[in-house]
Structure formats: C-alpha cells, structure tokens
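>> received
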Amino acid sequence: LLFGGDNKFIFVTIGAPETMLKYEAEHQRAKLRLREEYGGALCYYLGELDEKKAYDKPLDGFELFSSTLQLKLIDEVVRSKPYGSNEKDEPIDFDELMADGKVEEYFPLHHSRMRMKLVLEWASLMTKPQPLEMVREYFGEQIALFYTWYGFYNTMLWFPAIVGTLLSTTKVYFGTSDTPWVSMYGILLTLWTVLVCHLWKRLEAQRRYEWDTLEFEEQEVMRTEFMKNPATLRNAHKNEVTGAIDEYYFDEGGYFPPSGRAGRCAVTFGVIFVMDGLSILLSIFIYQHAVHPLLSMEDHMTGSTVGGVLFSATSLLLDRVFSALIARLIEWENWTTETQHEDALIVRSCLFNVVNKYFCLILVAFLINHVPIMGEDLSCPDWQCMPVVHTMLMVHFIATAMMQLAEANLLPYLKKVYTDFKMNASLKKAAGQGAPVKTPMEEALETPPFSGVFDQYSPYVFQFGYIACFTVAFPMGALFALVTNLYQLRMSAKTLVTATQRPPYSCASDIGAWQSVMDIVATASVITNSLIIGITSHSCYFYFPEMTMLQRIWAVIILEHLLFGAKIFIENVIKIEDAEASREYDRKTTMRDFHLKNTFKIELD
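>> returned
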C-alpha cells in the first residue's frame, strides 16, 4: 500500500495474525484440501478440523493457509465494512482513494520462497512439465487454466509441425507449392483442428473436477465496477420473479427499440461493423495498389513479401486502435460479473479480428481469381495464388515471432532501464555511489501490474486460426509457431513471476468464450481447407489431370460434406466428460462426507 504526497512515499504493509486468519477463513467459508487419508477433497475451513490436523499443507511451505489464501482473506477484511454501530461508516474503496490521489497504489506482494521455487521449477526449465498445481495454488485457477491450455496447445502442435515439415521437403523436391500431398495434409489438418477443440474440452472438464470449480459461475460475485456504475440502480428495482427489491440492477433492455444493455451492445456492434469495413477496404487497397503490380510469372516473391509486411502492419495498427475502443465500450455495457465482462470482450474481439487478421488471406486465396475487385481483374499470374498465400503466411509468422520476442525481451529491458534511471538518478547524485538496494515493496511498485488473461489467450487463439485454416498453403507455419511458443511459454512464466506485480487471486472454471472461438475456427477450417485443396491449390490435377473448374467445385462440396461428417463423428465418439475424473471426484467427496460425519462428528449442511 503506497501513499504519496510532497514527493515522499510511505509503504504500509498489511498483514493479519493467524487467529484472525482462522476466524475469517471460517466466516468467509474458505476451502482447504483435506489430507489424503480423509479423501483429499476440498472442504470448508472449520476450527475443529484444524485442531485435529485434518487439512493438508499447501505447497508453498505454510502450515495451513497458502500465501494466496492469506492475501484473499486479508483483502476481504480490508475492503469490508468497519465493525461498529455507525451506519455512516463505509468500506475502504481503494479505487476511489487512488483516483483522489490519497493512495498511489494497492497491490499484493510476492512470496519470496514460492517465487524462487516457481522460477527454478517452472520459468527456467524448457523441458520439464509445468508444475500446474503449484501455479494454481499461487496464482489461482484462472491463470493456471491458461497455462494448462497453452501447454496442451503446444503439445498438439507437434503433429502438424512434423507432418508440415515433411510436406515442405516434398515441395522442395517437386519445386512447386503444389504437390500430391497437399490434399492429404489439408484433410489431416482439418481433423487435427477438430481433435484439438474436443480434447481440450475433455481436459478442461478434468480440471473442473480436480480443482473443484464445478459451481464457480453460480457462486461468482458482482463486479465492483458494476456496483459503482452510475447507471446501475441500487435498491430501486423490484424483482419481477421474487417480488423482492434488488440491491443492484441494470436493465438488459432490447434491440428494438434500443434500450438498456442491449442498446449499448448495438452501438458496440455498429463500431465493430465500421472497423471491419475499414479493414476490408485497406486490404483491398493494399493488394490492388501495392501487391498486384509487383506480381509476375517470373517473380511472385517481391509482391507477396510486400503484401505480407503491409497486411501484418495494418492488422497490428487496427488491432491497437480497436483494443482501445473496445475496452471503453465493454466497460460502458456494464456487465454484472467478471465472467460476463470477459466473455463479452472475447466475442467482440473475435468479430473484429476474424476480419482484420484473416480477410487478406481469404481475398488472395479464394476471391481475386474468381471475382472482379472494384471492377478490375486482379487475378494472380497464371491463376497461381498458392505461392502468393505461401509467402504472405511465411512473412506473417516471421513478423509475429520477431514482435513477440521484442515484446518479451526488448521492451521489458528498456522499461527497466528507464525506470531504474528515473528512480535512482537523484539518489546516485546525492550519495555519489551506485543505486541503493531496493525493498520488495519498491521493486513491486516499479513493475507493471498483470494485464489479465485476455491478452495471454488472444495471440495464440488467433494463431490457432491461422494454422487450422490456412497453413495448407504454408506447412512450415506450425513448426514456426511451435518453436516460438515453446520459448514464449517459459518467457511468459518468467515475466509473470519476476517482472509483474503479483495478481490478486482469480478463479475460473473454463476458458470462457475462447472455446466458442475455437469451435468456430474448427468449423471454418472445414470450409477453408476444402477450398484451398479444390480451388486455390492445383494439387487435385496430380490425381485427376482432366478436371474442369465445375468438377473442382463439386469436389470441394463433396469434400466439405465428408469433413463435416467426420467432425460430427469425432465429437460424438469422444466424450467430453471424463468418467474416471468424475468417479475420482465422487470418491473424494464421499470420503470427505463420511469422515466429517463419522470420524469428526460434524453435521453436514
């Protein structure tokens, strides 16, 4: 906790004695894991169970409460309404205090022992499996779930990376972007995409049982921003179902006529529509005036490279502008819970980025050879668009890898140098010596806060879209992504542990609307890969040299239907719910209830 005034800073660390933590844990119904001999399930904290040493020790070395649970309990106490009979007393509102300048920042501190353990066992070892249970205990389920997904995605990338590399060698052998194996790779890639989505749902269900987050969304509390929003009615709306007065209420409204939240959402969708239109026009303009004039039968590389660079740059620029706009619009929509707020942000981001990131490839791969653009024929030389798409994707993956490396290494280094210079220049001058030793509070103050898991998921989910829908044209793309991701996984972990303020505890039972985005990608991959195989690529001529364009269109339709059938078959054969995980969860909860009733003589609620 940092107070500022007259260029002087006062750090106040807030803690609580063990007796208070135990009282608050029982009052707030905090969950701790029982020892294995009592089932190993999560159980509400009870003083009498603690006296009988029924709870397991956390992984960070504390005897009872993990450092994360301690921070959560202390934060609840600090923000709660003061004890006493004075009704005018209000809870401490740190957001308001920071806005008034009375408090500079409010943040939790890292636990040094656990922090070092995470660095040694997670961030520094490229080949060792992630200690996800340790990550969950220290950061919470939401962050642990992201790294579970990230690790799963990287594991699944090995298949297209290996097969794509083998396919690329055949392209070198044949000396062309089209080989007899392009069609087979497109089919395998589509089935792989379906498996990624479905197997992740299964793993996610296992984590819900293991981490006991099955009922999280039903127990989720309202956002502080929702409760403080001027548009939220407080103790002024009668519930139509129960007849009781709602403490907080915001009208869902409707689209016709626009009113309430729905009306605000309509404005957001209007902005997205305009941004999508701008992205489409820019893509067409770039191809028409910068790419097409440089394409020729002898040289497609120059135009394709220029196009790849310009498309990547404009996509990044529009994404930055859109991110700034959508953050304000989502806040204006005034969602009740963090899950609703996050899902709304994901859906709106998807509606824009699907166009912003993929339209340029759709334009070149599927449209320019068959549809006049602005009344002009912009078809590829000799109708060979496969090499153009190949080069554009290659430039995109290289540019993305370079940008991620710069963001992970160069930018944090430059920020650190600037912050150190700014904080220490005057002290160095006064003392005539090197920089002073900083306290953990000063170091935490100088590090940026955690930006949230949205920024963690976004680049990799859309990377998944590129690989699933377009890397038939650039099979090495999966290998590029895999190598970059394996490095970025540990760098991301290192940044989170050593170069970011410790985020407050945050729970989640699933990855939210990102799953819907992945399902859309899986469906789209059936269509795009069928079109690349039948229309963009000429690989079908290796099997049927006399095919006409009409026959190729029919081949696309037949292949698309077969792949959709295979997708439905896979989704029905592989069950999402893991029977073994469900049985293990039931076993643990049954043992817990048995021991509570018979061993500890505690009546169940």
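>> Residues 225-251 form one domain.
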